[in-house]
User: Fold this.
Amino acid sequence: MFKRDPEEAAQREAQRAVRRQERDAANVRRQEEKQALKDWRSSHPAEPTLNSAAMLRIWPSSKFGETSAGPILGGHAEFVDAGAHKAWTATRLVGGVATGGASLLAGRKNKGASVINVTFGNGAAQTYSVTPESTTLRMANQYVNAFNALAAQLAREAGQ
Assistant:
């Protein structure tokens, strides 16, 4: 009924075996890398803290002390909070009264400014704006503290 060439079948099986071995080797490498990163992060607890804060906004996350913008070693971060807060403005309050409260749904207006200034070990500097929401301000402060703690730990390790 069907004609099969035994040589072609053997070649296909050999190709499948090679691909299977490559896939298994890649899985083993991935698991080793994952374990190495887990071990590194357990000895550098500031990195997971920094990364959890970075998930909230577009701040750079870290892997083995390296970010997309540069290394953390030799870097420094500062949080500049210039009175950032949310406030009701006179215009929004008057508009709320005039429209029977409908425009009050627009919410409060952002006032003041907050930024994170980050200088990386390669000399690159970035400034990130921080919205005046309490959770964002708290995470920005946590990010800066974790960045500086990780930079200090890496500097101590490099000095040894």
Summary: Strands lie at 76-87, 109-119, 125-130. The chain has a mean pLDDT of 83. DSSP finds four helices and three strands in the chain. The helical segments are 6-43, 46-54, 90-98, 134-159.
